[in-house]
Automatic annotation (TrEMBL):
It comes from Clostridioides difficile. This is Uncharacterized conserved protein. InterPro entries: GyrI-like (IPR029442), GyrI-like_CCH_Lin2189-like (IPR008319), Reg_factor_effector_dom_sf (IPR011256). Residues 18-174 form the GyrI-like small molecule binding domain.
Amino acid sequence: MKYEWRKRDKELYLPKKNPVIVEIPEQKFIMLKGSGDPNSKEFTEAIGVLYSLAYAIKTMPKKGIVPEGYFDYTVFPLEGIWDKGEKSKGLDVLIKEDLIYTIMIRQPDFVTQDLLDKATDIVKKKKPHNLLEKVRFGSINEGLCVQMLHIGSYDNEPESFDIMNEFCKKNKLIRKSYTHR
């Protein structure tokens, strides 16, 4: 039976309109670090590289490579960890060119570094790109988090952050980090 994150991981990927506390377990990711405006050509290319690898891993059985523990699944959505660069730290405005990010796509538990290396070789042959060498594999254990659905422009995200900050204060929660996903 196909693993579909939209059905099995609703609480992680389909947030509510109001803030909620969620426990995010340790998860594996393919990741790429960068900086700059998410509307740039470079950012779009980085997304393309990650999705090329994610689909190369998913479709390996069609190429005769069946990883140990493989199961069919829906490719997970793009995620990102965002922070302000030095120019905009402490400012109330968002300077998109100064953003620092790690974009990533979650991977099933059967994925290993060795499997990512094989996928990288496959993608290099079809769609070579210098960013392929910068993709890394790793696990992230977020633990307890506060999340909510942001509706509207990315420029209005601070309103959602304010709502989550108030939720944290009301529930006596302390932020561990000022980055966000």
